[in-house]
Each structure stands twice: as structure tokens, then as C-alpha cells.
Specification:
11 strands; mainly beta; 4-stranded antiparallel sheet
Length: 122
């Protein structure tokens, strides 16, 4: 019933920008939090940013503060991740996920998208 689909990934030079989109369907108010996570090959999936799409409150990983912005368009049922001043360490597969609480641990999120690849070259 619930479906999350990421898009917007690609290959960019260091210092460039990308905007990722997470299109959600079938999501209820029981799961008001949408988070972005990323995973590089051979590494653990780590928290990037999260938003409560009802109240608009946000939270960011220290590594992306000042560079990334998470936002939502409730009319379009989408959550965005604007990524500026990208660095090679930002490279990874980016996933959006929905859950009941605004936390940073991936295990707390219930629904996941398939991911979109972001590659930042130096």
C-alpha cells in the first residue's frame, strides 16, 4: 500500500548541486516522518536528514549541515533533499524512508524506497 520512490540522483562534480525527490503514496498520519539515508559500498547506512511533514520540523546529520536542505510539498506528496556544495564523501545510494518518530536510526523507519545513486567526482 505504501510506496516511496526516489529520483534525482546522478553524477556531479565536487562543489555541484543535486535535488533528490521522494514521492510518497499511501502514507498516513501514523507515519509523519520522512528521512533520507545514504549508503556507500561496503559501509553502513547512515542518517542524512529527516522532516516531520506535518509540522515542518527538520534535523540534519552534522556532516551535511549548511549544505543540504530537506523540505516537503504536501500538495505534491513529495519530500525533497536539496544538496549543495557536494563533496566526494557524499557519494552513495540515497534512500528515503517513512516512520512514526523523528529519529536518526534506520531501524526505526518502516517503509523504504529503492534508492537513487549519487556520485560526486573530485
Amino acid at each position: 500500500q505504501v510506496q516511496l520512490v526516489e529520483s534525482g540522483g546522478g553524477l556531479v562534480q565536487a562543489g555541484g548541486s543535486l535535488r533528490l525527490s521522494c514521492a510518497a503514496s499511501g502514507l498516513t498520519f501514523s507515519y509523519p516522518v520522512v528521512g533520507w539515508f545514504r549508503q556507500a559500498p561496503g559501509e553502513e547506512r547512515t542518517f542524512v536528514a529527516t522532516i516531520n511533514y506535518i509540522f515542518g520540523s527538520t534535523n540534519y546529520a552534522d556532516s551535511v549541515k549548511g549544505r543540504f536542505t530537506i523540505s516537503r510539498d504536501n500538495t505534491a506528496n513529495k519530500v525533497y533533499l536539496q544538496m549543495d556544495r557536494l563533496e566526494p564523501t557524499d557519494t552513495g545510494n540515497y534512500y528515503c524512508a517513512a516512520g512514526p518518530r523523528m529519529v536518526t536510526t534506520s531501524s526505526a523507519y518502516v517503509f523504504w524506497g529503492q534508492g537513487t545513486q549519487v556520485t560526486v567526482s573530485s
